[in-house]
Amino acid sequence: MAQNFYCMYCGNKYSSVTSLSSSTCTRHPNGSHKGKHALYEGSEKTKYTCKYCGNQYTSITSLTASNCTRHPNGSHKGRHSPAL
């Protein structure tokens, strides 16, 4: 079975770490396309939890799609981030 690799910022799925880290990310913390995708180092799960607020989502993509009320930079000043 092939292993999947996910970006922790946007949740996009890649077949290798090389392909993941070779392109820029639309949800990078520095701004859209201002940094590369970053590897999510946790395992594949049925639910993903935000490490700041505890909300649960069915995918990393849906988790990182909205801003977090308990983000360290301030309420709604950063996106949800997946806990390992």
Explained architecture:
Strand 1 and strand 2 (13-14) form a beta hairpin. With 84 residues, the protein is low in regular secondary structure. The chain has a two-stranded antiparallel sheet with strand order 1-2. A two-stranded antiparallel sheet has the order 3-4. The chain has helices at 17-21, 60-63, and strands spanning 5-6, 13-14, 48-49, 56-57. The chain contains two helices and four strands; from the N terminus they run ββαββα.
Q: Hey, roughly how much beta strand do the residues contain?
A: 5-15%
What is the strand tally? Answer: 4
Number of contiguous helices: 2
* Largest beta-sheet details: 2 strands, antiparallel
Describe the global form.
flat
How are the strands ordered across the major sheet? 1-2
Give the terminus-to-terminus CA distance: 22 Å
> Which structural class best describes the helix and strand composition?
little secondary structure
Poorly predicted regions: none
Gyration radius over CA: 12 Å
**H-E string:** EEHEEH
Average pLDDT for all residues:
93
**Helical residue percent band:** 10-25%
